[in-house]
Amino acid sequence: MNGLRASFSIAAYSPLRHLSPWAAGLFTVAVLCAGHVPLTHCQELPAPGKHSGSPPITLHFVTWKADHPQAWDEAIQRFEQAYPHVRIKREIAPHSSTAYHDLLTQKLRNRDVSLDLFFMDVIWPAEFAAAGWALPLDDYFPHGEREKFLPATIASGVYRHHIYGVPSRIDSGMLYYRKDLLEKYEFSPPSTWNALVRQAQAILEGERTTHPLLRGYSGQFKQYEGLVCDMLEFVGSHNGSFLTEDGRRSNLTAPESMQAVRFVREQIIQRLATPAALTYQEPESLAVFIQGKAVFHRNWPYAWGLANDPRHSKIVGKVGVTTLPHFSGGKSTSALGGWLYGISAYSQHPDEAWAFIEFMTSPESQKYFAIHASLAPSRLALYADPEVLHANPQYKNLLPVFQTAQPRPRTPVYPIVSHILQRYFSRVLAFPKTDILEEAQEADRKINRFLSLIRDARE
Amino acid sequence: MTKPLRPALLGGILLAVLGSLCPFLWFVLTSFKSQIQVEAIPPTWWPDGSLGFYASALIEHRLLHYILNSVIVACATTIIALVVATPAAYALARLRMAGKAWILGGLLCVAMFPHIVIAGPVWQILERLGGLNTHWGLVLPYVSLTLPLAVWILTTFFQELPFELEEAARIDGCTAWQALYRIVLPLAAPGLFTTAILTFIYAWNEFFFALLILTDPERQTLPVGIALFQGEFTMPWGEIAAASVIATLPLIIIVLLFQRGIINGLSAGAVKG
Amino acid sequence: MTQSTRERTTGWLMVFPALTFVAVFSLYPAMDSFLLSLYSEFPGSERSFIGFGNYAELVRDPVAHQAFIVTLGFVLLSTTLELLLGTSIALVIHERFKGRGWTRAAVLIPWAIPTVVAAQMWRFLLNDQYGDVNAILFGDQVDAYVPWLADPWMAFGAIVLADVWKTSSFAGLLILAGLQVIPDETYDAARIDGATAWQRFWHITLPLLKPALLTALLFRTIDAFRVFDLVFVMTQGGPGDATQVIQFYGYKTLFTEGRVGYGTTISVTVFVALAILSLFYVRTVGSKLLQREAA
Predict the structure, then answer these.
(1) How many Cα atoms sit within 13 Å of A210 on the Cβ side?
(2) What is the predicted ipTM?
(3) Of A56, A426, A442, C78, which residue is 20 to 30 A from B153 by alpha carbon distance?
């Protein structure tokens, strides 16, 4: 076993050194067997830059248990066929953004060299760049190529003029509504928040006898990252913002920001959504909507599929989707979500890792994911692709939503800022007697302190 | 003892049993529902007997595979913890040596470390040893985390055992090791048993370290496996309920079979101080 | 002399493996953490030594104060309830009756369920729309359904409830152990004197049960002080930080925010608080045991 292991010198540069010799030997045999079939026809296929004699390179990719596992298995298999000298070893982390972040950063903080590829939520590139965890991709990812993606998704991967991530897809907040109810009351989808409140109240009034439990609005207001997204959409569409333009100071005490927060507290939580929304993440809020108990619903693109799936939903075919409303004088703002591929700065195989990213974000792969896993493509051209639109007719309406997507603050201390924001919003919404100005000032003070620490550290 | 308050006792039994079981039974009912029933408003009581969630938990989410990993980790932890804790407890209970109070007090102290604070450094040690993503990499910290309680219980347990037999054996020329293995261990079976159960349940249930140390899906344990059912925006209550039921069954069987052992071991060991 | 030397050597040999484990995987990490707590470190900045600066910050941090108060409230409420319920459970399963084995097994089940699973279960049961707790209380009256986790006080109560449900039986076990060592003769004498059941419990059982109660209290306090999983799964500390216990705050600063120094400081402080509390307990419960060890 040891001879075998030495002769292929796997131990030198793979995480197999973590295994016992016995397991490593076994694994080597397995890799050889698996590698053998593609290796033979690899002579015909042009595999860039590698000859078939060298042992395969294993890339460790931190991912999650996908909602459409077969689609991912298939895509990765295709990559391994196209690049027979590279194997992808997936490591599974929780799918919730925060839990994934905590696990991944634990590895990166310790400079784990066995890690090559990971996903970044759109809010992390600044943090990862400042900490030196993510490899700058400027040379791999030329500007000409970047222009083919939706601009917001590219912007989210950039920090201080370098790019660190390639968007795997796009996610953004949107307004779902009950088409049947709006038609019944002859409303067109609301373009302002005030119109939304008026329409919801008229519908609730009219349906009181038949649907006594109907609510006006269902969204995500639990104290977690989603709360920041939902609040960004209200504050942003009132010309407010969390940080000032230059990103150096907190902007929560600006009147626009505070008025929007007051609106959420008084109109959305206390009138339309009921305080129950303070316990909702995406699944709970969606359940209310697809059980037919809400007129309006804020969610991400994935909700479309579930709302129209008779195994989950009681409102199949009665669902409409549009851009989120805005306040008069503001413009519609939708929180940008989604995941970027990144390469670990400690990876020993950045070229192969890039090949993987390039493959997975190619037009063909994104089209495949759009059709087989309903992942909204980050490449603009695919929104004109007939096959993609045939599989996802709703994309036609969604493209304008995607183009209003706004990133959350981009700062290396984002997790800290986010916790302060979560505390602020959750307190204001859960304790109706708190003074918004006071709470906003406290949050401002704390955020400014951390932003200045970052500046001090650098200047 | 006579039972002067029969109705009160009956009431107590009912309350204790219902209070303990009902919340879990509702979850059991949920596991037999169909998808649309799970989130029905208002909730429906009786499931339509669908086994879909079980199929999905076992096949799509590979539940048995996580259970197997958990069995390996929990058994290894239990065995090693017992092997290490028994002689230590024996020495602390029986042999003349200095600093025993310090050792016992120190162990209690160690048991109080918040897991979060030691998780980072433990991770680094394991990385250096090559223990990340291995079963033994999880077993080692588990043993260390369960040792204080195990030693504490076994020490008090050994102290309650009669000394005479051992003394006779020692006079006959037995070493301390021989006395431990030939005479004390057979007598101490209930205490060992209790310690084993406590350790096993700890290792079976532990989540935080398992999540950090194991990211290789081939090695992840049950609590981590169930936690990973959750999608980015979806919460598969039905599958989680089904998995919980399956995961809890072995423990229920253990408790049913061995409740007498658990209780006897504890009463002889833990409290008599 | 030689025999006692040999005995000492054997003793140390027997203790050595256990001490090694604990030293490598608990003691060293704890020391390491303590050192980390003397540094300032967060993403994007260099690590710098600041002595007890993090501790000074902790003293001034209002969020930490609130978390400590929430934790103390949680510890007080949950341990009190667990001791009360635990004693009741112990008294019940101490009696002899048909089906005692099954009753004991049933009572132990909550303890055997993984905490993460139990927490998910409670989150589901307490849902404001499809949760069974509402269905039990209000039946089809859906408009009366309560969003338990939305109200700061009730969310706190829910965390306590989940913890009490999960661990009362463990406290009950420890107390039962104490009950079993009280000789029956003690009761017989009292009964002859004409004491009522309540008087017997109050004047005989309870005083004799004190060591067991204190042991249960010690173990439950240590665990309740470090509560994490329940909050992590059920509320994430919300709403408005009403359920943010100190360990969860420590986790967030350390793992999510990457403020390694400050996050470690929080956990080290939790440990010190616990150690002081335990010292106080051990002086009352464990002193007898420790003295005998030392002798």
Answers:
(1) 6
(2) 0.88
(3) C78
